[in-house]
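During the second year of the project, the team shifted from modelling isolated chains to modelling whole assemblies. The rationale, set out in the original proposal, was that interfaces cannot be judged from single-chain predictions alone. As a representative example for this report, we include one of the complexes processed in the last quarter. Its constituent sequences, exactly as entered into the pipeline, are reproduced here:
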Amino acid sequence: MKSPLSIAVLAGVALACSAAQADTGKLLLTGGVSTIAGSAGGGLTPWAVIGSNATEGEVGVSAYATRAATQDYSLNGYGVALGLHDRLELSLARQDFDASPAIALNGIAPFGVTPGQHIKMDVLGIKLKVAGDAVLNSDSWMPQIAVGLEHKQVHPGSIRSVLDFLGTKTSGTDVYVSATKLLLAQSVLVNGTLRYTNANQNGLLGFGSAAPGKNGRSLQPEFSVAYLINKNLAVGAEYRFKPNNLQALGAAAGLGAALREDDWKDIFVAWAPSKNVSLTLAYVDLGRIVPGITNNRRQTGYYLSAQVAF
Amino acid sequence: MTHSKTLIALAVSLGGLLAAPAFAQTAAAPVANTAAPVAPAGLYQALGEKPGITRLVDDFVNRVVKDPRIGSHFKDTKPAALKESLTDQFCQLSGGPCKYEGADMKSAHADMDINKGHFNALVEVLQSAMDAQGIPFAQQNRLLALLAPMHRDVITKH
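Output from the structure prediction step:
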């Protein structure tokens, strides 16, 4: 699975670079930055903007690398996005989650989790702008609206036995609708996204749950707000509700809240020194992630992402 | 817990759907009915009043005609006339005692083959010109918010 993805990524980059025009014309930061799932938006939640620097009549491409680390876990991610005519966005992302604390699960049952196990996940994203213009329609409240899909495939390695035990699937698809509006006179950007999902921890712990956990999808809202300090610099915050599908299953198995999942939030600063480069630094609070093996700690830490866009 | 969350989500999205068109109508109505929207308080002063706007527009037009992306659109335009007309327009929009008497935006740009990339380039040149005049970023955006909706008339090529 790994090499077909790498080939696809390379082919995508090569295709996109040759297709991308030398002179693409989006305004600075109005393509957003890359989310952890590869689509354009804030760090944790997609926006209705279409990634890359391409505006109408242009084709653009962006690529990013991200690292986030909390008390017990870390995540590396990278990916590419192709922006077509500021209308359609295709994205491909790979996440590599260091799930080393999962070794403790062997104490609950003979799961055979190996030391230092990572969970990898591929995300294929499609986003279509359906209405509005987030930036230029400053005399109206009408936002830019987009619909999107994130198809995720998890490669859990030796943790597969745990996911099987929990009754979670290793692939799933989120669908979402986003509305983004730049309140230009106030230098404020707001975004609301409504996601229909059954992903556990964004999919890293699979999708759905055996009964009495929640197996089906539910609607989860996500919000971002950003203030533009100057052309090159924005600060903001995000809040992403999460479904907590697994807690009831854990409780029924006598593990209390060991499988609890919390909402995600962050405060960020995004800096675009030029049209082609942006850096995002955030403080993230991912709540508890399998608190039963991490002494019930909240997972807080940093998030750093670099993006190039053409 | 889950139900209340879903309810919040629905309320927010429904509120957005209902409120957005209503706000759009009330916000757009004055623009459609009268020539100029209400100018934001203090913007004319922030731009340095007539002398400041004159300096800004002078530099802006000088930059525009030299810009490799959009300069060629202005090769048949007399810079002096453009400067005079833009000064009046910015002055009036920002709440100054001027009257823009030039052509409306649609007929002024009808034959210019302007796409969104060109429009965004124009915005960037204006931002650079405002930076050069030391106009604070928040005030720049208040002026841009008055100009940006003109994209509907200025962009002729989609």
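Chain B has two domains: 1-34, 36-154. Residues 115 and 157 of chain B are 5 Å apart (CA to CA).
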